[in-house]
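Task 17 of the worksheet. Students: predict the tertiary structure of the chain below and write it out as structure tokens. Keep your answer in the requested format; marks are given for formatting as well as content.
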Amino acid sequence: MSIIKSLVKILAPDSRIGRSLLRVRMFVQCVALQFSGVGGEDGKDFLDVCRRVIPRYSMVTVDRLHSLYQISLGLARRQMRGSIVECGTWNGGAAAVMAHASIRGGIARNVWLFDSFEGLPAPTADDPTTVHQAYHPGWCTGSPQMAKAALMAEGVEPDSIHIVKGWFKQTLPTANLGPIVLLHFDSDWYESVRICLETFYGSVVPGGVIVLDDYYRWSGCRKAIDEFVTAKGLSDALKPSGKTAVFLTKPIS
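Model answer:
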């Protein structure tokens, strides 16, 4: 095994060292967020839920979780209907933040989580060399049981939780979820991001939001997003969501 792969395994979020690093990062980022002016009851509520989900249920950075919280809260307060859908969920923490914010805004939604729960799939030729050097089977393996526990801890009813285990190319083509109001991709690689966009974009309600992680981190992810939004004429619709992600609001007309 290469040195790079060994380091990735040692620092992975499901390792003891990785979890400790996530705790330190969360503390620093929460302090930075407070100093940036986030306050009020919503700010306090976000920081509370953030501390509950990191590092046990989420490896997502605080700024990205804050963006997901604000988007979900805003959609609920506007009384927009539809499900929350997440593709690439690990242990469900980001989905728990979105569901919590929606409930706070007055709407209890169905939550759909799609993940192999066997780790990330192998990258393809459209992904960067660094990814191929670091990749190993089982990288970032999540747990459906922990994902369900994360959601239930934030008040989501068991009947509203739908966890679909398997590789996207097997599970997504047969998915029938109904209207989607908030779609979150944390799918990393080109092929995964592409199939998620192609499968679920049409089900997002007008005015609904799609959040795309790792746009500024992985070039394969960015390539898949750029190709899709260019074909849809939505290139100018991409907006920052935290430091490494982007989001777009589906046009109403």
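Marker's comment: The radius of gyration is 17 Å. The longest strand covers residues 204-212.
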